[in-house]
Design brief:
Elements: H1 2-12, E1 19-21, E2 30-32, E3 52-55, H2 68-90, E4 98-104, E5 115-116, H3 126-136, H4 139-143, E6 147-153, E7 155-157, H5 162-172, E8 185-186, E9 188-190, H6 191-203, E10 209-213, E11 219-220, H7 221-232, H8 242-249, H9 251-257, E12 262-263, H10 266-270, H11 280-287
Parallel strand pairs: 1-2, 3-4, 4-6, 5-12, 6-10, 7-9
Antiparallel strand pairs: 8-11
Length: 291
């Protein structure tokens, strides 16, 4: 979802893109790589002189129950590929000036009502440890003098994918409701804003390190539920009990659904980035027109 939207925006800028794929390339704009191989790309000449690299890979944390095997996959799909790419870019004669790497606000862990910006310490838990390893994997690029930006994504809201798309059918039936107490904070951002923020980070060479990609007004789960119900003109009064979520989803329920992270985009705001959708109501109105 995010990669497709980002490629579209880069195309509109007439920016030439080389996409790394894990299958045989189907066009000159693709280059095959295997991040688990000793030489992920045997011939790295096509990478020489690129302006920037953007790495968004990682197994979807909400796609499966968190078995021991899937947790290993979540780690390896992030750490191994990031480390392989950073090491490969660092070894080029003409490395890119910037490497933007996906991360997540899950690095802050469950922090209840604490306001979190990029200076806040990492938290504890599986997701927090995963994000710490993920960001550390880019160190070879940092050591080579490449400007590295860790894109700490919040919940990306889009009509055609992600969490919002999964929730819409339930809310349209009037079966939506808050999760557990509803007091946990959701740090969200609209898909148009997250793409604009990535392009902003590409353009602004003074941005480096962790950057929270979240809207400036995080909301509680209860307020998010009310806003989505208003947007689809349906009631939302059926809560999802915590014990039922834990029974159905196990560890993922506590780490991904019941956890609270009130993250704010301090670095983006300090750099004067302008959000098209700064509030949850403005975002949902833009994403769900005429609903």
């Amino acid at each position: 979802m995010l990669g497709t939207a980002l490629r579209h925006s880069l195309d509109l800028r007439n920016i030439k893109i080389l996409q790394l794929v894990r299958h045989p390339p189907s066009s000159p704009a693709e280059l095959s790589w295997n991040p688990n191989a000793p030489a992920p790309i045997p011939d790295t000449k096509p990478l020489e002189g690129l302006t920037a690299a953007i790495h968004l890979s990682g197994a979807n944390v909400a796609e499966h129950r968190w078995t021991a095997d899937f947790k290993k996959q979540m780690v390896s799909s992030r750490f191994d590929s990031t480390h392989a790419l950073a090491t490969m870019l660092a070894g080029l004669r003409q490395p890119p000036k910037a490497l933007l790497v996906a991360s997540a606000i899950g690095i802050y862990g469950n922090r209840e009502d604490e306001i979190l910006d990029e200076k806040s310490n990492p938290g504890t838990g599986f997701l927090a440890d995963l994000c710490k390893q993920w960001e550390a994997a880019a160190q070879p690029a940092v050591d080579a003098g490449i400007r590295v930006v860790h894109l700490r994504f919040g919940v990306v809201l889009a009509r055609q994918g992600g969490a919002l798309a999964k929730m819409l059918p339930i809310f349209r039936l009037g079966l939506g409701g808050p999760i557990a107490s509803g007091r946990q904070w959701i740090s969200w951002i609209s898909l148009p804003d997250v793409v604009s923020a990535i392009l902003f980070a590409l353009d602004h060479t003074d941005l480096s390190g962790a950057v929270n990609l979240t809207a400036p007004a995080p909301v509680t789960n209860r307020d998010y539920t009310k806003a989505l119900a208003r947007a689809v003109h349906r009631p939302a009064i059926l809560p999802a009990p915590a014990f039922a979520l834990r029974l159905a989803l196990g560890e993922m329920a506590d780490e991904a659904l019941l956890s609270s992270a009130r993250a704010v985009p301090a670095k983006l705001q300090a750099a004067s980035f302008q959000f098209a959708h700064p509030t949850i109501d403005s975002a949902l109105a833009a994403l769900l027109p005429g609903t």
